[in-house]
UniProtKB/TrEMBL annotation:
Organism: Quercus lobata
Localization annotation: Secreted, Cell wall
GO MF annotation terms: polygalacturonase activity
Superkingdom, taxonomy of origin: Eukaryota
Predominant localisation class: secreted
Cell division in keyword set: no
Coiled coil feature spans: none
Pfam families xrefs: Glyco_hydro_28, Pect-lyase_RHGA_epim
Keyword Secreted belongs to the record: yes
GO BP of this protein: carbohydrate metabolic process
Family membership: Belongs to the glycosyl hydrolase 28 family.
Protein name: Rhamnogalacturonase A/B/Epimerase-like pectate lyase domain-containing protein
Lineage: Eukaryota, Viridiplantae, Streptophyta, Embryophyta, Tracheophyta
Rhamnogalacturonase A/B/Epimerase-like pectate lyase domain location: 57-101
Length: 482
């Protein structure tokens, strides 16, 4: 597929139009992704598993006035439905309305389904978010050392879990949490919107996530995860509102997502310094495709900075980024250890970027002063091809670590249009090594030009990862409540 400036302009115009319409219409998503609620109370949608039993939150005393806490109703419903885990599983239906709730925990063989006009509102009562110990691969909370608040939708040690809907909304009401964070009034790290730990066979799809207190979607220590058709919106200056953060996870597929964020749209992680090294649980076999990102102060896709369990075999394609600080960013530092390797990216359309290529070996944030200064990360096998960018300030800033260079960097078929006020130096490189072909403007000497005949280098893997073999089932219910 040949990329051109005409192509990237068309992609940008199309994407901006879509995002504007989506924002104005509460981001309901494409009709092809929608489930259908038919007359007579029947329900149809696609999922990795269909359920034999169903109930509505109203069956458990749920009140959709946006003021009454439904935390107990959610947990009572899920506890009741858990008895059907070995009998075809169960789904909890959330009707139209505003459902205020604190944190609640899911169960196995379970589906949480939101009507298109259902809005889950995160409570602003901190007491409705129990405190958890820090993640073992982090050693402390991200905001505060004392641990973290439980996420709004939480689960651990689960199998076969679906969180989906007809593009219903989960609103984290994050301003309350952001203000307390900036004022230093939080004892614990802010809650995420959706977090599943030590779980397998997870689907998160067809939802709109607004104003998360911190990260939006955080699968951690988990496997076989599908994240599809998610729209995530947060103010571009909101703190740490990462979109989707696969963390020490294996076999993950993220596709068809639209993210406007105050931080990285997707951040791939695997633990922090000595804690991540000791835990030793990498993120690997990750697919990211058809992502649209707006994040003026962060990256479309970030690898790290917490990568001390290792990151390997990441495949990203068809990435659109607009007014985003960088496209794919690698963040690491002395003390991180482990590796980021076998990274493959193709077909990026980018408009208005500070940097296209950004790698940093000097990302110094540490959990404490106990990290090992001899734990040097290995960054190698980083491949980019078929990239078109416009209105760029600096083409690339690639900074490895002295004595520990980043190697095996490959770039081919890359056209970068520089901004009228671009920096005089298009590329800044140190402690890196690699090859390029068909890259404009010409890259730094550390990335040796192989000539136009090598423009097909930086091959994208042709094998199929297991997560791409997972297919959705057509689920249909008559809404016969238990």
């Amino acid at each position: 597929m040949e990329f051109s400036r005409r192509h990237v302009r068309a992609q940008v115009i199309k994407t901006v139009s879509v995002l504007v319409v989506v924002a104005l219409l509460s981001l309901r998503g494409a009709e092809s992704r929608r489930a259908r609620i038919q007359q007579g109370g029947s329900l149809e949608y696609k999922a990795i598993s269909c359920r034999s039993h169903s109930a509505s939150l109203t069956d458990f005393g749920g009140v959709a006035d946006g003021k009454t806490s439904n935390t107990k109703a959610f947990q009572a419903a899920i506890d009741k439905l858990s008895q059907y885990a070995s009998d075809g599983g169960a789904q909890l239906y959330i009707p139209a309305g505003k459902w205020l709730t604190g944190s609640f925990s899911l169960t196995s063989h379970f589906t949480l389904y939101l009507h298109k006009d259902a809005v889950l509102l995160a409570s602003q009562d901190m007491n409705e978010f129990p405190a958890l110990k820090p993640l073992p691969s982090y050693g402390r909370g991200r905001d505060a050392a004392a641990g973290r608040y439980t996420s709004l939708i939480f689960g651990t040690n689960l199998t076969d879990v679906v969180v989906t809907g007809d593009n219903g909304t989960i609103d984290g009401q994050g301003a309350f949490w952001w203000q307390n964070f900036h004022r230093g009034k939080l004892k614990y790290t802010r809650p995420y919107l959706i977090e599943l730990m030590f779980s397998d066979q997870v689907q998160i799809s067809n939802l709109t996530l607004l104003n998360s207190p911190s990260w939006n979607v955080h699968p951690v220590y988990s496997s076989n995860i599908l994240v599809q058709g998610i729209t995530i919106i947060a103010p571009v200056k909101s703190p740490n509102t990462d979109g989707i953060n696969p963390d020490s996870c294996t076999n993950v597929r993220i596709e068809d997502c639209y993210i406007v964020s105050g931080d990285d749209c997707i951040a791939v992680k695997s633990g922090w310094d000595e804690y991540g090294i000791a835990f030793g649980w990498p993120t690997k076999q990750l697919i990211i495709r058809r992502l649209t990102c707006i994040s003026p102060y962060s990256a479309a896709i970030a690898l790290g900075s917490e990568m001390s369990g290792g990151i390997q075999d990441v495949r990203a394609e068809d990435i659109v980024a607009i007014q985003t600080e960088s496209a794919v960013r690698i963040k690491t530092a002395i003390g991180r250890g482990a590796y980021v390797k076998d990274i493959y990216v193709k077909r990026m359309s980018l408009h208005t970027m500070k940097w296209v290529f950004l790698m940093s070996g000097n990302y110094k944030a540490h959990p404490d002063n106990k990290y090992d200064p001899n734990a040097l990360p290995v960054i190698q096998g980083i491949n980019y091809r078929d990239v078109v960018a416009e209105n760029v300030t600096v083409a690339g800033r690639l900074e490895g670590i002295s004595g520990d260079p980043f190697t095996g960097i490959c770039m081919s078929n890359v056209t970068i249009g520089m901004a009228s006020k671009a920096k005089k130096m298009s590329w800044r490189c140190s402690d890196v090594a690699g090859i390029t072909s068909g890259v404009t403007p010409p890259p730094c000497d550390l990335l040796a030009d192989q000539g136009p005949k090598k423009v097909t280098t930086c091959d994208f893997p042709e094998d199929t990862l297991p997560i791409d073999m997972v297919e959705f089932k057509q689920c249909s219910y008559r809404m016969s409540y238990v």
